[in-house]
């Protein structure tokens, strides 16, 4: 009923979540902001100055989404770079022993230490504001893994875990680092790998909207021969959210070949990174040519390889058929009294558990999308 009203927002980011089919078909997935903006373009005023992203990071969304309308609010924002308190920490990761004493023999793993030859040196360089790490050379290790609707990429998890430890060892505060992905199952894998670093914020792109960090890693996950990126990555607004969260440094990890087939925005994203020299083709030994003692097991070896299937198969060939091992495991899991008997007597049968009523999760969570998201986070996807 007023003479004038003002809406402030950005309909180039994520739209409303509408789960009701009838409401969706009726057009309620289009916000009032977008509806009025498109019907009355003469009433729209673009706020062009942004105060979050440095100029390099802004370039991506500016060219891909905003048609060059964005500007950095001032020179300080435009020239913002990440301050590395301890850049010499890189030496520690180039040897198999982090104790740099004469009494401890060391083996140099990475023989390249300049930003032009070492991806870790490139990451730590203050002049590196945007970096796309292409994992295609790591195939088949870097291929995605699908199980039902759960899609993960263990190689990207390992790589991002290494990069996170590097930045923290170099003096970056955990609260200044955020990791974004597009799949809840990948998010669960990342949280498991980074469980020793609880202060790092990890979310899907949807939940990272409205947040920002000095450094943001983005895991694209998809890497397959068909070049299929899926519906989540085809939504250019979701991609826009992911690439606009960083203030000083943005690191994108994914498959160049797969993303090139993912539509205009993803193809443009890869193209800009190539054109500006921001795309880094990782070497095929990138996961082994640096030493990360934080990720070493109790025997001093690096963390488990992402290719678990090959390990399992080799164990099966060495120790016998899978069916035999499963039967052995079942025997070990039987109650102690059933195997040996009580007080030396003959084996006894296990007690039959009482029957309890079942609570159906689908009924509890029906029509409650926020509660469903919470349960998915707790249960890892």
Q: Largest beta sheet: what is the strand line-up? A: 7-6-8-9-3-10
What is the third-level CATH name, the topology of the largest domain? Rossmann fold
Largest sheet: 6 strands, parallel
Number of domains: 3
Classify the helix fraction into a percent range.
Answer: 25-40%
Q: From N to C, what is the helix and strand string?
A: HHEHEHHHEEEHEHEHEHHEHHEHHHHH
Average of the residue pLDDT scores: 82
Account of the protein in words:
- With 381 residues, the chain is an alpha/beta fold.
- The chain has 3 domains: 1-45, no CATH class; 75-295, Rossmann fold; 307-346, no CATH class.
- Helix content is 37%, strand content 11%.
- It has helices at residues 21-25, 32-39, 55-64, 75-78, 90-93, 119-124, 154-169, 184-193, 205-208, 230-234, 236-243, 256-259, 264-275, 308-319, 322-333, 336-340, 361-365, 369-378; strands at residues 49-50, 71-72, 130-134, 145-147, 150-152, 177-181, 201-204, 213-219, 246-254, 279-281.
- The strands form 3 sheets. The chain has a 6-stranded parallel beta sheet. A two-stranded parallel ribbon has the order 1-2. Strands 4-5 form a two-stranded antiparallel ribbon.
- Helix 7 crosses helix 8 (184-193).
- The chain starts with 20 loop residues before the first helix and ends with a helix.
């Amino acid at each position: 009923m007023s003479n004038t009203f003002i809406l402030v927002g950005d309909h180039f980011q994520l739209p409303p979540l509408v789960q009701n089919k009838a409401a969706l078909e009726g057009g309620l997935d289009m916000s009032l902001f977008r509806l009025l903006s498109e019907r009355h373009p003469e009433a729209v005023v673009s706020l062009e100055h942004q105060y979050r992203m440095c100029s390099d990071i802004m370039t991506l969304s500016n060219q891909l989404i905003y048609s060059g309308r964005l500007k950095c609010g001032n020179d300080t924002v435009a020239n913002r770079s990440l301050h590395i308190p301890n850049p010499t920490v890189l030496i520690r990761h180039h040897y198999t022993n982090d104790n740099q004493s004469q009494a401890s023999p060391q083996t140099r793993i990475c023989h390249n230490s300049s930003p032009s030859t070492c991806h870790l040196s490139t990451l730590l360089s203050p002049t590196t504001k945007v970096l796309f790490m292409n994992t295609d050379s790591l195939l088949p290790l870097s291929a995605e893994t699908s199980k039902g609707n759960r899609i993960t990429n263990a190689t990207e998890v390992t790589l991002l875990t290494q990069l996170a430890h590097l930045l923290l060892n170099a003096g970056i505060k955990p609260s200044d680092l955020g990791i974004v992905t597009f799949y809840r199952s990948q998010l669960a894998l990342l949280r498991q790998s980074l469980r020793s670093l609880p202060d790092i914020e990890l979310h899907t792109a949807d939940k990272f909207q409205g947040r920002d960090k000095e450094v943001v890693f983005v895991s694209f996950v998809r890497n397959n021969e068909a070049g299929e990126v899926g519906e989540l990555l085809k939504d250019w607004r979701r991609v826009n959210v992911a690439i606009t969260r960083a203030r000083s440094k943005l690191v994108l990890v994914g498959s160049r070949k797969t993303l090139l087939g993912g539509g205009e925005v993803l193809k443009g994203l890869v193209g800009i990174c190539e054109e500006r020299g921001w795309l880094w083709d990782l070497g095929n030994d990138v996961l082994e040519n640096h030493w990360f003692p934080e990720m070493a097991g109790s025997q001093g070896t690096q963390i488990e390889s992402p290719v678990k299937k090959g390990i399992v198969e080799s164990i099966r060939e060495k120790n016998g058929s899978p069916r035999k091992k499963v039967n052995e495991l079942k025997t070990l899991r039987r109650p102690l009294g059933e195997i040996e008997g009580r007080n030396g007597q003959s084996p006894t049968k296990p007690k039959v558990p009482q029957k309890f009523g079942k609570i159906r999760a689908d009924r509890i969570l029906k029509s409650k999308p926020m509660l469903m998201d919470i349960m998915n986070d707790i249960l890892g996807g």
